[in-house]
Design a protein that fits this description.
Length: 118
């Protein structure tokens, strides 16, 4: 009887440990890759994620490498995408640009512009 109880407890303990280890390693294995141009520049996660919890990088961190576009026309003669008539230049970079996912054109939530967002 005692050996049956230990077997059940052993199985529960092993199952619990496996679950905890799986959750732990899944969290670290799920780290997403960065865009190729950032990788080629030699950046690593801590260059953008300055908090110890690896939250989304603040816009100020983006601006340590990228300048705010100050132009009013791009090379195709189209209005500057970075100077919105609705938000000015205050819109956060992450509204359009995503490092670990597909970037999206935030303006197209209301409009139908055709430009590529890197």
């Amino acid at each position: 009887m005692f050996s049956d109880w230990m077997t059940i407890m052993d199985k529960k303990l092993i199952l619990t440990l496996l679950t905890v280890l799986t959750l732990f390693f899944t969290h670290y294995a799920s780290a997403k890759t960065m865009k190729s141009h950032h990788k080629k520049s030699g950046l690593n996660c801590a260059d953008c994620h300055i908090s110890k919890t690896f939250e989304a990088a603040p816009m100020e961190q983006c601006l340590t490498c990228h300048e705010l576009p100050q132009k009013k026309q791009d090379y195709h003669g189209a209005p500057d995408k970075h100077d919105s008539p609705h938000y000015g230049v205050e819109l956060e970079c992450e509204n359009c640009h995503a490092e670990h996912e597909t970037s999206e054109n935030f303006c197209n939530n209301c409009h139908e512009f055709e430009f590529n967002v890197p």
